[in-house]
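The authors assume throughout that readers already know how a fold can be written as discrete tokens. For illustration, here is how one protein appears when written out as sequence plus structure tokens.
>
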Amino acid sequence: MVKKKVIKKKATKKTENNTDWHAFVTWCQERGLTAIPANPWTLSAYAHWVEPQLSHKDIVSAFKTIFRVHATKSRRRPDRDPLVISTLEKIAERAKEKKAPKDKAAPLFPDDDILKPGSPKKTKKTALKATPGKTGKRKVLPGLSASPKLVKKRKLKK
């Protein structure tokens, strides 16, 4: 009997990245699209779909895998298509914007207006008080009555 040596394969970068390829293929199958040769529109749509889920670095590595498989299995080169290139550039720009420090919004009022050392002193405001009338009741200013004016009920004639 001849014994066969079993060689264990190390997890190489290509086998690890095949998960990216399989994810792309399943995404295409769910939507009824062809994975190989992929239409540039399909690749752009996949990039937009994956963007909220993966970081920019992961998207780039996934697309390198997709481009590698396309180079081996078909003559099409989707990595040279302007639609795919512009989509990946836009994703890169958005990733840079997320990482960039955000500027503070301009204050509503300048600090020197609010925090002046010699701010004006507060003055007492005199409120209008109603003076008592002849009956001893408080005079009610027009338009400020506490209850509505009473109106007689009219009887309708038939």
Remarks:
- The chain has a mean pLDDT of 76.
- Residues 99 and 121 are 47 Å apart (CA to CA).
- The two ends are 123 Å apart (CA to CA).
- Residues 13-31 form the longest helix (19 residues).
